[in-house]
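We read letters as residues; the integers encode the fold. Take this protein.
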Amino acid sequence: MSQLLELPDEVYEAVKRAADASGTSMADLIRQRFGTGNGHTANKIQDSRTEEEKQAARERFESYFGSYDSGDPDSCNNDRIDADLAREYGDNHEPTDR
């Protein structure tokens, strides 16, 4: 049986690069990686990105590392956080007449 599959351009390009790198067709690559020839689906998909692409992704991810100074030395007090959450969850947020 044959089916049509639509892929986003970036996914198509990644599959094409991986197929080209392995010297096989895109269909064969997909069958090898996801096929059930042995009764089991492939367990691991190999990363077909170049080292430069991997490094760029790593740098984007690491750009989120760091710390935040709230200016409140007690801002990580779990008891206070729990009390704040309980107060907010219990508030119906309806305006009050003042």
Summary: The helical segments are 9-22, 26-34, 51-62, 78-90. Residues 9-22 form the longest helix (14 residues).
